Amino acid sequence: MKFNRRTHTCGELREENIGEKIVLNGWVDTRRDLGGVIFIDLRDRYGITQVVFEPNYNSETHKEGSKLRSEYVVAIEGTVRKRPGDTTNANLPTGMVDVMVDKVILLNEAKTPPFPIQKSGDVNEDIRLEYRYLDLRGEKMQKNLLMRSKMYNSVRNYFNDNEFLEIETPYLMKSTPEGARDFLVPSRIHRGKFYALPQSPQTYKQLLMVSGFDKYFQIVKCFRDEDLRADRQPEFTQIDIEMSFVDQEDIFSMVEGLMVKLFKETKNYELETPIKRLDFHEAMERYGSDKPDLRFDLEMTTLNEVFKDAEFKVFKDALANNGIITGLLAEGCGDYTRNQLDVLTNYVKQLGAGGLIWMRVKEDGLEAPVAKFMSDEEKQGIIDTLGAKPGDLLFIISGSKTQSLSIMGSLRLEMAKRLDLIKPDAKPALLWVTNFPLLEWDEDTKRFYAMHHPFTSPNLNEVDKLDTNPGDVNARAYDLVLNGNEIAGGSIRIHSADLQSKMFDALGISKEEADTKFGFLMNAFKYGAPPHGGIAFGFDRLAMLFANENSIREVIAFPKTSSAASLMDHSPSDVDEAQLKELFIKIR
Amino acid sequence: MKFNRRTHTCGELREENIGEKIVLNGWVDTRRDLGGVIFIDLRDRYGITQVVFEPNYNSETHKEGSKLRSEYVVAIEGTVRKRPGDTTNANLPTGMVDVMVDKVILLNEAKTPPFPIQKSGDVNEDIRLEYRYLDLRGEKMQKNLLMRSKMYNSVRNYFNDNEFLEIETPYLMKSTPEGARDFLVPSRIHRGKFYALPQSPQTYKQLLMVSGFDKYFQIVKCFRDEDLRADRQPEFTQIDIEMSFVDQEDIFSMVEGLMVKLFKETKNYELETPIKRLDFHEAMERYGSDKPDLRFDLEMTTLNEVFKDAEFKVFKDALANNGIITGLLAEGCGDYTRNQLDVLTNYVKQLGAGGLIWMRVKEDGLEAPVAKFMSDEEKQGIIDTLGAKPGDLLFIISGSKTQSLSIMGSLRLEMAKRLDLIKPDAKPALLWVTNFPLLEWDEDTKRFYAMHHPFTSPNLNEVDKLDTNPGDVNARAYDLVLNGNEIAGGSIRIHSADLQSKMFDALGISKEEADTKFGFLMNAFKYGAPPHGGIAFGFDRLAMLFANENSIREVIAFPKTSSAASLMDHSPSDVDEAQLKELFIKIR
Questions:
Q1: Which of A107, A109, A549, B313 is the most exposed place for a label (fewest CB within 10 A)?
Q2: What phi and psi values does residue B366 have, to the nearest 5 degrees?
Q3: Per-residue buried b or exposed e for B191-207, using 16+ beta carbons within 10 Å of the residue's own CB
Q4: What does the pLDDT read at residue B122?
Q5: What residues have CB less than 8 Å from B360, skipping those under 6 apart?
């Protein structure tokens, strides 16, 4: 299996190479047999070059050429020729030339692939994942992983240029379940004890700030043992960032510089900064989402003021319970049929809404089943507040605040789809969402959970409310949103051991539990912790959006299925009893 | 806890800043109280700046300055001043100026650290690891991790410049114990099944070659659940490289380019290439090691020829059993005392040698207890072959080949230490060791194991011997050695499914077992696998050598102890019964 190493890649030959003796190595992409002359498109990562087996030129190699099949791996020795007459191919960078084959060495045969290499897009994803090594050979996955590779490089150069240190944090760490579920790793040396894989390097990067490293970044795998949705993987990649002696503004400007560079180097797009900002509470009221898609308008409007004296029981109750009445104007949709409206009503009901109020705007006012429950003043109020015109349709949802706004936010996205509001050439819409609530209440466990994570700093002027009204405290937390997707989230952290204790109190975490789980961090805060903050990007999702794909699996070389399995190597798998014995565990 | 953000770092102020109003943020490094004036060295990652609290200048801040203690975190507002008279400090880049303090804001207090931040070198390592966040604050660890961060950058830029793709491979993979022990991760979704953490991304990178990615690299964590020696960690970092359509020469020249860049950018040292090469068998005979330290000579010499007709039973037996008689000349050591010689004899005995033959070279021949068993011709043969002169000492060890050579190799290193042969300014000695045996026999399990790994290609002209005499087959494998440390190892891989089967046969791995463990790889080889090969660097060890440290823990931010525990966060730790229940496991 000796072979002649290539002198050129398959994407390299040009007219200036004409007459040269060259060697190519690659895969047989296609083979055409035209009147005794065999044309093969030879493929490698860099491109395609046409090689020609002509019986008159070399009858020996022509015979061998006739044995080649798709995906065979060959070394070709030959002479570069200008393609005759009108056979040049302007679509191919190498299309002005081809190679007359002097010698062919078969490096490896290939069975017929289970799907055509260049057309795996139509193939069932399970088959693609089983034969991932072939799926990756196709143009799409080659392009996506090449782009992803360039993105790593842009990110790292950016942080290196800005004097960040890349520091690796441990993968075998302590299990501190507070948030998602940990993946556990049994210890062989310490019987009955376990490591956990990191859900994020959060505590480590904060310790690095205590150590004075000042600016840290890492592109790092993280792990969450959650039930997978379409867009999740048990292991995922994070761009992890932390800085000392900063506030929110420093994080924003550092990240905006990164986004400018990434958009320029990956998409050749000149991103304008500063990136727009929106308070969480405003984002919820206007877009019904903490990650609004701003590629289109279609804003929601709160109608509480209009209905402040409402007789209509549904609205009256909503207001009495500190809830919300939110409206959405669908311009020009006044002709929606009853059937269309039923579909939308079902859509919001499935999301948990009690119902959907719709009203057609006519020349003479509002036409709707519920119109009779409203005063003329209220009807005019709706029209004025939403800016409705005859021919428009409008929706109203009322009830508890968060739920009603979220459901209307979903309806907003649904209407955008139906109205085709997101144009293929829409500019990327980036947005900072700020001032998130610090805590969210969980009805099941009757306790507060940290909305971001338990190390997030409350707004400094709201710290006192932690004791009296913790649910109202907002946080120095922020998300970066791209086209309606959260691509990064972060916060200014607590750097005082006292405030951190207070936070654990608010979360109902006892002193003992806090000490067992996070004692080392609280301890570290006592030895001179600087003010610090950071952010983390979901790298897979960012790459997915840059590649215009709908699933992160399209930008991950070897992803798992939604049941966290690999169809290629059949992991997870059985292991030997001896292995378990050494780890002091057995299967229940 | 509002604070004034810095306008400058603590390493930045120079004479041109004199008169400027500036803000610094940092830690109190030292405090001196001189005649009522307080001098504080304020420290951050970038350097140290002296700040001055003078009662006449500002009595208010002077009072506050007097409360500051070591490691307090402060924001200082002040005015840059030329240091008066002879108080400039030429050792400090900022030493021409200091800062008259106008205002001080205490950002955080600090308890007295358990050890002085700048003198952690003398501290018990367990204490350093428990308070790692403070240990990392010291100059040494700051310097080491800064260097390591630069090394990542050099490595990645090199591979990006050479058109390698960075591709992430999975951390949750299939357990295929063949070599070291896997760390296992129980699956929650698939009852009784387990993932393994990667010992290396070996199979994945080979699949990427099958996919046509051509040149791959990754800096990646790997995991081995082995009993730890001083220089091992359960998780370690690898620079992982794989290339298609290459042979050994391509790998060598690519890696040599990397080493030139790394030495230049990290050590400002101009490395000369090509790097010296040595056949494994020759390395063993001349240096008694597959990773010889070539910073000094002190070569071993095989004396089999001298003793081919030996009467001396020890030598006669060694030769009869296909063993070796190896000699080492210690120049000028003829005056070693009997006591010194006993110490050396014990040294080799502890390594498993039957004994150590030593001979003093005198004007009138060799003086030694065993001299009487040798003919004059043999004695002269020793002197001639080793080039011994009066006043020298020589050692002979005989027995089975590998063991005797290894033991003499250890004695060579020991003598180098005693003779102080490794000079502090010795040039770094790089070496390729090539042509390793493919297999090594294990007496315990009575089977062959792959010396490198089971995917390593045998020398192509030795493939036939796989059936007849597998122990004699050599491999297309190579190690890169720096100053007696293996820093990288790799091989040209098998890329034919048939040859891979043959290899599994030689290893005594049944078809069923091979199929269960590596079926996906063997399958991939059937669809057009290109010739390929690669190499992997132990990044921790490389960084350790570059930092002139003796332990990889000195270049890892948060290392584990030799019992694989973290003294800082006390992992591994107990976990909740509920967590185990969800994973379908229990503790034995």
A1: B313
A2: -100, 135
A3: ebbbbbbbbbbbbbbbb
A4: 82
A5: B334, B336, B366, B367, B368, B392, B393
Q: Which two tokens stand for residue B321?
A: 């059993």
- On whether any CB of chain B is under 8 Å from the CB of A184, the answer is yes
Spell out where A210-323 has E strands. 215-223, 235-244, 277-279, 300-302
Find, among B139, B449, B160, B423, the residue nearest to B295 by Cα.
Answer: B423
pLDDT at A324: 97
Q: Token digits for A571?
A: 């992991």
pLDDT of B2 > 70? The answer is no
Residue pair A449/A442 in contact (Cβ under 8 Å)? The answer is yes
- Answer yes or no: do B193 and A574 touch at CB < 8 A: yes
A143 touches B at CB < 8 Å: no
**Residue among A30, A70, A73, A522 with most chain B CBs within 10 A, to mutate:** A73
Instruction: Give pLDDT, residue A474.
Output: 96
SS3 A22: strand
- Residue ranges per domain, chain B? 15-108, 142-277+430-556, 296-418
The whole-number mean pLDDT for each consecutive block of 10 residues of chain A, a chain of 588 residues, reads: 83 97 97 92 97 94 95 97 92 96 96 90 91 96 98 98 98 86 96 96 97 98 86 94 97 98 97 97 97 97 95 94 96 95 97 95 92 93 96 96 96 96 94 96 86 92 91 96 97 93 90 90 95 98 96 97 94 94 94
Q: Does the beta-carbon distance from A520 to B569 stay under 8 Å? A: yes
Q: Is the pLDDT reported for residue B178 higher than 70? A: no
Q: Which of residues 523-552 of A touch B (CB under 8 A)?
A: 524-531
Q: Which of B7, B573, B576 to mutate to test the interface with A (most CBs of A within 10 A)?
A: B573
Task: Tell me the shortest Cα–Cα distance from A137 to chain B, in angstroms.
Answer: 4
Q: Do A169 and B583 touch (CB under 8 A)?
A: no
Residue A104 CB neighbours (<10 A) = 24
Let me know if domain A142-277+430-556 sits in CATH 3.30.930.10: yes
Which amino acid, A569? Answer: D
CB contact under 8 Å between A557 and B146, yes or no, is no
A111 touches chain B (CB under 8 A): yes
Chain B residues with CB inside 8 Å of A43's CB? 212
Nearest to A120 by CA among A143, A136, A144: A136
Whole-angstrom Cα distance, residue A477 to residue A481?
A: 13
Report pLDDT for A367: 92
Which two three-digit tokens encode residue B154?
């050099």
Query: Residue B558: pLDDT band by 50, 70, 90 thresholds?
Result: very high
Residue B239, pLDDT score:
98
- Substitution target from B27, B149, B512, B516 for chain A, most A beta carbons within 10 A: B149
The phi, psi pair for B267, rounded to 5°, reads -115, 0
- Is B1's pLDDT higher than 50? no
Q: What CATH code would you report for B296-418?
A: 3.30.1360.30
Tell me the fold of B15-108. OB fold (Dihydrolipoamide Acetyltransferase, E2P) (2.40.50)
